[in-house]
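Example 3.2
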Amino acid sequence: MKRGSTLQIGIGTLFALVSAAIQAQDAADIAGLGKKLAANNCAVCHTFGKDEPNGQGPNLFGIVGRPMAAQPGFKYSAGMKAAAAGKVWDEHLLDAWLSDTQTVAPGNAMTYFEGDEARRRKIIAYLNTLH
């Protein structure tokens, strides 16, 4: 009985490790697609590398977990500053932002919207890697 139990535990552990590896690869694939989407849609205004200068929009390196409208050296619009009080960029806020920036911060200067939820999730997955 003990040998069968050990074998079941070993198989269960192996299954869990393989499953975790597949999930990690899926997350990496999603973030990779998000990087391409960001390059095609966001890089017109934003930079993504550590210590890169701001563009027409703020540098997005480290955005997840950063207070809203707090990128050093970037001049935010009055609408963005007014909406930012107490908000921190997380997946939920980024999703709302990419869905409709004017709902999150009326009067802000960003004009890009992403209506496709799957594309937003990929972009956000990529932004989560920037730290």
